[in-house]
């Protein structure tokens, strides 16, 4: 099947209004698909001043701000205008990337029109509940996700470890790996800037431990701060470098040492400079299905200390590109950081191994997997209807 024969209706819960790893991956996919000649139309909530310009044609779907997290919006309906737009566009495949009500309605629309639907899984939303003391709802959410994903022809997930979890949960039997790449023109060791770092008051002999991402509780801020607290109590020399912004910044500032450096939201070369100027990357999150920030750190030649979780387990090779600890093992996480502090040679070796792995993550070859998945799903449906 030629790319020009493929017409994709892509549904996203956040295509460009708040910048995150998931929507940047989707926009990069859109750029690749359009470059191959695929017909693409994107459906997502929109705002007047988005974080960045969207790639491709974007149609706004009805949505409202999520209570307590007003920067995000919840898509709740396929309005008549959106349905009319879909009818006029005539997609031959629907791709959902966020498990919300509009995604469920989009899958129903696809089934009503006898076209295939596939889903890409970017975040393990069910794991968010524990950060908001709503763990009791996790079985309900898993059941809802199981019904949604079970109605799709296939799931696209970024890492084998994520695929294993989804199979165990009974989400879908047909799972393919759509990994993530890294822009090595942006993220590379040459971005390291010791003068910039000195300007922040971080000494050359201090081990700078980086946090990178939206400053929200579901990124494991409590685990990060508790790990740093152990270092403080043990008198281990270090500095914390926080790269990012978010609604929980005040909480994070209160729970980190007074000399922690917050550089706020960074983009482009400034982001790469900040990350490459650290010495170790600490990723405390268990919610990612891949961990774009982990790969970006590896591309900057930083060793990684992380929780053993989906995504991380497929990126970080313990003892080679970083060190991992089971969820909840704060002392072990701190021990890994202490090991890097005591052994700069190991720190350098693990960073170099991470860089070597990052060099194998090419975006075009990775995104070609999605194009193949579209073509396979369309052909399979055509055979059924023949």
TrEMBL record:
Q: Please state the span of the N-terminal signal peptide per the UniProt entry.
A: none
Q: Where do the Glycosyltransferase subfamily 4-like N-terminal domain residues begin and end?
A: 20-184
User: Pfam families in the record, alphabetically?
Assistant: Glyco_trans_1_4, Glyco_transf_4
Q: State the protein's name.
A: Glycosyltransferase family 1 protein
Which PANTHER family does the annotation name? SULFOQUINOVOSYL TRANSFERASE SQD2 (PTHR45947:SF3)
A GO MF label:
glycosyltransferase activity
Its domain of life reads: Bacteria
Query: Lineage of the native species?
Result: Bacteria, Pseudomonadati, Pseudomonadota, Alphaproteobacteria, Sphingomonadales
Report which residue ranges the record marks as coiled coil.
Answer: none
């Amino acid at each position: 099947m030629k790319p020009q024969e493929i017409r994709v209706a892509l549904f996203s819960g956040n295509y460009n209004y708040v910048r995150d790893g998931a929507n940047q991956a989707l926009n990069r996919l859109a750029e690749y698909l359009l470059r191959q000649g695929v017909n693409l139309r994107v459906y997502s909530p929109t705002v007047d001043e988005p974080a960045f310009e969207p790639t491709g044609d974007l149609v706004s779907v009805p949505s409202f701000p999520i209570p307590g997290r007003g920067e995000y919006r919840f898509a709740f309906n396929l309005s008549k205008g959106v349905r009319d737009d879909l009818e006029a566009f005539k997609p031959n495949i629907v791709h959902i990337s966020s498990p919300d009500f509009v995604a469920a309605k989009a899958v129903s629309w696809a089934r009503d029109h006898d076209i295939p639907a596939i889903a890409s899984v970017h975040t393990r939303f069910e794991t968010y509940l524990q950060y908001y003391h709503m763990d009791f709802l996790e079985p309900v959410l898993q059941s809802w996700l199981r019904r949604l994903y079970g109605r799709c022809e296939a799931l696209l997930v970024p890492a084998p470890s994520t695929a294993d979890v989804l199979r165990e949960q009974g989400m879908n039997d047909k799972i393919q790996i759509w990994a993530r790449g890294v822009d090595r023109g942006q993220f590379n060791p040459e971005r390291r800037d010791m003068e910039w770092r000195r300007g922040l008051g971080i000494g050359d002999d201090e081990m700078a431990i980086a946090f990178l991402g939206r400053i929200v509780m579901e990124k494991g801020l409590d685990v990060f701060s508790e790990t740093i607290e152990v270092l403080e109590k043990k008198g281990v020399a270090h500095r914390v470098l926080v790269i990012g912004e978010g609604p929980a910044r005040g909480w994070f500032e209160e729970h980190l040492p007074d000399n922690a450096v917050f550089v706020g939201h960074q983009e482009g070369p400034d982001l790469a400079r900040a990350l490459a100027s650290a010495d170790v990357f600490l990723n405390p999150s268990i919610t990612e299905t891949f961990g774009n920030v982990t790969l970006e750190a590896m591309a900057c030649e930083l060793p990684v200390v992380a929780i053993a979780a989906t995504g991380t387990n497929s990126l970080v090779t313990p003892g080679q590109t970083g060190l991992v600890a089971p969820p909840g093992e704060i002392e072990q996480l701190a021990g890994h950081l202490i090991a890097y502090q005591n052994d700069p040679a190991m720190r350098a070796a693990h960073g170099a191994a991470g860089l070597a792995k990052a060099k194998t993550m090419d975006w075009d070859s990775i995104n070609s997997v999605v194009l193949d998945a579209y073509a396979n799903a369309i052909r399979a449906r055509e055979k059924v209807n023949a």
